[in-house]
Amino acid sequence: MLDEFEKLNAVVLGVSPDSVESHKKFIKKHGLKVSLLSDTNHLVLEKYGGWQLKKMYGIEYYGVVRSTFLIDPDGKIVYVWRKVRVKGHAEEVKNVLKNYKTNKNKVK
């Protein structure tokens, strides 16, 4: 699927609060070809609203809200997906990206 994004001139990056070493192990274990960025201080995650207060079993804690952002070549966020579920998500993002490019950089 990554090659399909590359054909659309898209760059796919992942950001998480995990360490660089943890990312290396994860990439090797899963054979990932996506670049993973380590944000242990949550600076990027907080700027993009991906580090939020969560609640499980009545306990509140801060954690990652899995999100995807479609950012145009000028750095403008043109589409946001929050609370992403993996199944079918890459296909949905690809379709929105194709639509964006086809409709002269307008998301429909």
Written account of the structure:
By secondary structure, the chain is α+β, with helices and mostly antiparallel strands. The protein is built from four helices and six strands; from the N terminus they run αβαβαββββα. The chain has helices spanning 2-7, 20-30, 43-47, 89-102; strands spanning 13-16, 35-38, 51-56, 59-64, 68-71, 77-81. The strands form three sheets. It has a two-stranded parallel ribbon. The chain has a two-stranded antiparallel sheet with strand order 3-4. A two-stranded antiparallel sheet has the order 5-6. The protein starts with a helix and ends in a 6-residue tail after the last helix.
Low-confidence stretches: none
Largest sheet: 2 strands, parallel
Q: End-to-end distance, in Å?
A: 22 Å
Rough outline: globular
- SS-based class: alpha+beta
- Quick one: how many beta strands? 6
Short description:
This protein has 108 residues and is of the alpha+beta class. The protein has helices at 2-7, 20-30, 43-47, 89-102; strands spanning 13-16, 35-38, 51-56, 59-64, 68-71, 77-81.
